[in-house]
Structure formats: C-alpha cells, structure tokens
C-alpha cells in the first residue's frame, strides 16, 4: 500500500501566518519543496475569499477552502460552494441582532 503524502492542508491564522499576517520566507521555501515533490498545498480558513487571498497568494497554493470550507476553489475555479443565500440568512441575522449577538458575513458578488 502506498502511504506517500499527496496533499498538505494548512490553516492560515495562528498557523501559517505570522502575527503581521505574512508568510515567512522559510515557510515559503518549505511550501515550494512540498510542491516540488508533487504534493498539493492547500489552505483551509474561516476567512472569506478576498481576505484569504490578500494574505495567501496563489503562487504558494494549489487550492483553497474559504468560509470554513463553504467555498472550495482551485485557482479561480470554484469546485464546491455551499453558502446560504442572503434572503434566507437575513431573518437569522436580524434575530441575532435583536439579541445583541455580533455576526460577520461576506458578500462574494
């Protein structure tokens, strides 16, 4: 049975990114070495797509899973998307607001 590592999946905040939201040169070199051996390098984050891409440029990654896995992309191609339409989410967001609960949403239009 072949047990070779085929993919590395990394979190961004508190894992891959430094406190200044950058990726160290050492880490970039490790990502390059992983890719050179044929491994796919992907990140998974709770961040939205725009926020994630601002700190994790495509040149180091083969794919991404953003919004806690709700949107999965390979380069600019979305291969899976499971988000809640605004019309359906709005009543829930309003309920949270009435109870003083803070929420965060992202509109990917």
How far apart are the first and last residues' alpha carbons, in Å? 45 Å
Provide the CATH topology of the domain at 7-82. Rossmann fold
Radius of gyration: 17 Å
Low-confidence residue ranges? none
**Approximate helicity band:** 25-40%
User: Would you identify the CATH H-level superfamily of the domain at 7-82?
Assistant: HAD superfamily/HAD-like
What composes the largest sheet? 5 strands, mixed
Query: CATH architecture of the domain at 7-82, please?
Result: 3-Layer(aba) Sandwich
Question: What structural category characterises the helix and strand content?
Answer: alpha/beta
Question: What is the mean predicted local confidence, pLDDT?
Answer: 88
Count of helical segments?
Answer: 4
Could you describe the 3D structure shown?
This protein has 109 residues and is α/β, with parallel strands linked by helices. It has a domain at 7-82: 3-Layer(aba) Sandwich (Rossmann fold), CATH 3.40.50. Helix content is 34%, strand content 21%. The chain is built from four helices and five strands. The chain has helices at residues 12-16, 25-36, 49-55, 86-98, and strands spanning 7-11, 40-44, 63-66, 71-74, 77-81. The protein is elongated, with a radius of gyration of 17 Å. The termini are far apart. The model has no long low-confidence stretch (mean pLDDT 88).
């Amino acid at each position: 049975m072949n047990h070779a590592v085929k993919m590395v999946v990394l979190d961004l905040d508190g894992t891959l990114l430094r406190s200044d939201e950058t990726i160290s040169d050492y880490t970039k070199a490790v990502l390059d070495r992983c890719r050179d051996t044929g491994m796919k390098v992907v990140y998974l984050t709770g961040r939205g797509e725009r926020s994630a891409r601002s700190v994790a440029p495509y040149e180091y990654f083969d794919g991404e899973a953003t919004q806690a896995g709700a949107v999965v992309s390979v380069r600019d191609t979305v291969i899976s998307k499971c988000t809640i339409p605004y019309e359906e989410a709005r009543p829930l967001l309003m309920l949270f607001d009435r109870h003083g609960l803070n929420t965060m949403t992202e509109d990917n239009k």
